[in-house]
Amino acid sequence: MAYDLSVGLVANTHPQGGIGASNTAEKYVVALHRMVTTLSEPDSTVRLGI
User: Fold this and answer.
1) Can you give the pLDDT at residue 4?
2) pLDDT tens-digit map of 8-34
3) DSSP conformation class of 43
4) How far, rounded to the nearest angstrom, does the alpha carbon of residue 24 sit from its chain's CA centroid?
5) What sign results for the dihedral spanned by CA atoms 23, 25, 31, 16?
6) CB 45: neighbour CB atoms within 10 A?
7) What sign results for the dihedral spanned by CA atoms 38, 42, 44, 49?
8) Phi-psi region of 41 (alpha: psi -120 to 50; beta: other; left: phi over 0)
9) 5 and 33 in contact (C-beta within 8 Å)?
10) Less packed terminus of the chain by CB within 10 Å, N or C?
11) Which conformational region is residue 19 in: left (phi greater than 0), alpha (psi within -120 to 50 degrees), or beta?
């Protein structure tokens, strides 16, 4: 899951020419970490809309 989210992050930023600011990259990494942590919890009630 973490790998797929990371690939999605790269695919999302690449068409626009990359991430221009370090604080933007940091915010993306923090959001990615929170998603992986939340979705990997055994008692997580979060459902993916896939």
Assistant:
1) 81
2) 777 777 666 677 778 888 888 898 888
3) T
4) 12
5) positive
6) 6
7) positive
8) beta
9) no
10) C
11) beta
